[in-house]
């Protein structure tokens, strides 16, 4: 038997279930997504579920179950069931689907905190951290930066200086799986019932960090590559694990690209300290590029705002704008197509 409160079940979710026409059935949480089925944690144990037709064909792809979703299911055999409904999502981390402008992909839902994992080797990138952080903040998820492999040689002063603007927005931990004293503070930061998603590039040590936090081997890891000096990619799916007397950890495969999947304008201004200067711009709709009286550009020229951070702000804002514009146009096309289809049906009936 599983105590689902340890997996995040609470009164709010119970009330949401009462609004479902399937409230009389069982509920559980998606622990992992496979190609053809879903692993579900329920009170009675762990089972494999497939999707009912109304779920599979009645929702867009990004609304299909993802790791962390709470679902309602109908059991039909030993350790098997059918997902008939999905409870409304809360704090869902999305990313833009690779190769598209406006399609998005759900990574994990009902998330309280996101551990943005970066390694202190050649893989370290402030710009990549910013990208993860913007999307996490947009979903009202608390970001935490976890820097791994602190046992390697690195320039501490240079790293801290490059992260100054980020450090005001979220906690930063320097860790090494070979130094338990660096893991303990991270363990204490995780509260019982909280859901933590781990995001980062391949080889930064997400699975190894989870093993260290759980103090047991829950995910397989591989040795450092002698050729590249980087950890080898081991996670192949998003999977949830319960820490003993603590929270829920969600491991994710390393990503080469993490495209923004929402309009992040306000979040971007706050992250890069642009908002402090933007209030003094001559025009309210200032784009902070080449407008006369732009206080942001003036701050860059005077050295009050770092040029690297400003350029990163412009790049991410452009990407965010492209996504929101493309999504808006896509919705307009979908609505137009729906109207044309309805008109075609009416003509056919005549």
UniProtKB/TrEMBL annotation:
Domain CP-type G: 98-258
Tagged with keyword Nucleotide-binding: yes
GTP-binding is among the record's keywords: yes
Cofactor entry: Zn(2+)
Major site of localization recorded for this protein: cytoplasm
EC number(s) recorded for this UniProt protein: 3.6.1.-
Binding site for Zn(2+): 281, 286, 288, 294
Pfam family of the protein (one): RsgA_GTPase
Cofactor note: Binds 1 zinc ion per subunit.
Annotated InterPro entries: G_CP_dom, NA-bd_OB-fold, P-loop_NTPase, Ribosome_biogen_GTPase_RsgA, RsgA_GTPase_dom
UniProt domain EngC GTPase: residue ranges: 109-256
Compartmental location: Cytoplasm
Entry similarity comment: Belongs to the TRAFAC class YlqF/YawG GTPase family. RsgA subfamily.
Known partners and oligomeric status: Monomer. Associates with 30S ribosomal subunit, binds 16S rRNA.
Stated name of the protein: Small ribosomal subunit biogenesis GTPase RsgA
Gene: rsgA
């Amino acid at each position: 038997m599983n105590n689902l409160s340890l997996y995040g079940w609470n009164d709010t979710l119970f009330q949401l279930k009462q609004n479902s026409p399937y409230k009389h059935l069982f509920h559980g949480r998606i622990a992992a997504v496979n190609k053809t089925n879903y692993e579900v944690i329920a009170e009675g144990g762990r089972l494999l579920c497939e999707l009912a037709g109304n779920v599979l064909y009645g929702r867009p792809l990004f609304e299909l179950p993802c790791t962390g979703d709470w679902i309602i299911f109908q059991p039909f055999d030993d350790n098997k069931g059918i997902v008939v409904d999905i409870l409304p999502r809360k704090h869902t981390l999305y990313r833009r689907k690779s190769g598209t402008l406006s399609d998005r992909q759900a990574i994990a839902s009902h998330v309280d905190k996101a551990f943005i994992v970066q390694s202190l080797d050649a893989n370290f990138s402030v710009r990549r951290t910013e990208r993860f952080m913007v999307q996490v903040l947009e979903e009202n998820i608390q970001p935490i930066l976890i820097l791994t492999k602190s046992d390697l040689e690195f320039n501490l002063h240079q790293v801290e200086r490059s992260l100054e603007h980020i450090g005001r927005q979220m906690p930063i931990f320097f860790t090494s799986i070979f130094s338990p004293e660096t893991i303990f503070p991270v363990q204490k930061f995780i509260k019982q019932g909280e859901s933590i998603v781990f995001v980062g590039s391949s080889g930064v040590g997400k699975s190894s960090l989870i093993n260290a936090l759980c103090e047991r081997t829950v995910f397989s890891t591989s040795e450092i590559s002698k050729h590249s000096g980087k950890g080898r990619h081991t996670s192949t799916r998003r999977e949830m694990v319960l820490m003993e007397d603590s929270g829920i950890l969600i491991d994710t495969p390393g990503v080469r690209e993490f495209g923004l999947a929402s309009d992040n304008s306000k979040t971007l201004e706050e992250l890069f300290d642009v908002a402090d200067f933007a209030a003094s711009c001559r025009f309210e709709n200032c784009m902070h590029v080449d407008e006369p009286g732009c206080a942001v550009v003036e701050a860059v020229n005077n050295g009050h705002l770092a040029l690297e951070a400003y350029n990163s702000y412009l790049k991410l804002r452009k990407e965010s704008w492209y996504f929101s514009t493309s999504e808006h146009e896509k919705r307009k096309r979908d609505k137009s197509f729906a109207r044309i289809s309805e008109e075609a049906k009416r003509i056919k009936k005549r």
